[in-house]
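Reviewer has doubts. Consider these tokens.
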Amino acid sequence: MQNQLFDRHESAEPLVILAIDGQAEYLNSFLDVDAADSLFKNLLGSLAWESDQIQMFGKFLTTARKVAWVGDPGCLYTYSGIQKTPQGWTHELLQIKHKLEQVTGHIFNSCLLNLYHNGAEGMGWHSDNEKELDSTTPIASISLGARRKFAFRHKQNKTTTSVFLDHGSLLIMHPPIQEHWHRSLLKTKAAIDPRINLTFRKILPKI
């Protein structure tokens, strides 16, 4: 089993993390430190954060991490059996959204934000295959706060690739990654600060 680890990347050019069965590109300096610090502080105070619920073995469990679902009116999103109704865009999130749209050439109409209070909170192996998601649009993921290890695992051959996500970094996950790869934010016993992750997406309109 191949296990590839990418550490710091100081170039202004994206680093290609995955290049088969979809492509993932990492840019560790999408936001400078001051902008990332300001956005982190703003998001903590401007959004309605709530504990998430996940369905396991027929039961709903409440997570320690908290989430916020933001988007255009009508961008309903259902995962783990729970339907999310979006909060409205804040000025700061709209600015980031427009910047991402210029960089990627794609339009995003929603953003799922996760707040991890410490290293004991993470995200297990998963892929975003919900029917509401536009499978032709990439997911653009911005990291704020503590540096965390993020991993991909191929669904068929179990190859793994990991990258450390820095404060202010951008990870772009291009189709068809969701069909072929699981991903995970790995937990750690190290004492680390909180982290906010923003994943910008495109939700399909209801027919």
The chain has a mean pLDDT of 90.
